Fold this sequence. Notes:
By secondary structure, the protein is of the alpha/beta class. It is built from 14 helices and nine strands.
Amino acid sequence: MQGLSDQAANHYERQNPNGGPGLQLSTLLPILQQQTSQSAQKLEALKEEIIKVESQVVNRTIAELEANALLDIQRRYPTIFNNDELLEEDNSISCSYTPMKLSNVSKPIRPLPMASPLKAVLYRGDPSRCGEPWGLELILGQVLKTIPAPTTSTTSTTTTIAPNNNNNNSNRWTLIKLAAGSTELYKDWSHSYEQEYNTINVWTANLVPRLQLITDRKKNRIHPECATTSTPTNSNDGLYDCRWTAIVWFQGENDTFQYDNAIQYKEHLTTFFADLRQEMFRNKKTVYSSSPDEIPIVVVGIGRWRTNTIEGKLVLRAQQDFCNDDSNNAIFVSTHEDLSHNYHYEAASMLILGDRIAQALSTLFSRNRITSNKTDYSDHKNTMLSLSTKGMVPNSVWDAIQLIEEIQTKLEQEEAKR
Length: 418
């Protein structure tokens, strides 16, 4: 989730380390909460707030696209930006955040943080509520309450579970966020890399232990209400049956700095997801029973700031191609067309991404034909908003990349003959 093509925006962010206009939710909420029938006025006010961080270097187009997207979310969920929805603790939505340092991603995080009720943290310095100060899981969690769903989820930067609750009309979700900035997929996350180089990375140190603990009653650090049985019963001491349900993967930009990483990204991604699904499926840790491939995946695309490079285009195409293969049971969520061009996504982008991921999960859940109880909010008929891969890179770009690869191969062959 890191990026910055706009030096003016970077300067603005550095000058406002504790958050400033456009950077934080607290600067957008007053506008979104305005009770006015003049949507045009609200749109202009949002644009003016967003442009403060996007700066004049990135023209007003992005600000207008983001402002319209926020108002569309509000049209579909009229109360979602109200204080009583965002700022009050909601026991049906829980979250935990496990941050890891790039300098030592193989160091186990102990004790693992326990999930607590999700709510917005409108200031920095409290990572216990999923983010510093908050992230896309804020709106993701709010929208998840409204959609029929199975029971759970994991990620590169977000793992999600949902305790099953047969005695309540609302979905209960827990978002388990495992994050490390500036990581490479193969070196830092992949089990295959550990095997090849006889080392330990995030996979063994933190990811697998997080997955395994979901069915461990005594050592469970997922959620205080998780039980160990595969079927909810009245003898669970009031606990719920917790199982992983889906994967949300948000990574890739750091793989655009080396050609080898970029050209092999799809292969590494495919292997990583296969291993991850298998680990989630073992020992009945998911809601699915037929195959690991049933576990749905949402892949969030890399940001605009790296898609203007050859390596960035390769990674973006790899993410899209993986999701376009129907057998992979995955959906691609675009960020490079209409969200912030900067290194770091500002408040508006985070809110929009949370909704897009939730819509993607809703579609994947419906494909799997698993039903659950619905909750309040408005009837949610609009799905797949901006979730399509309409921003596929033109064929001419791929032709150019292929030509460069052929030239590189010929040069290497000529070098080998010398």
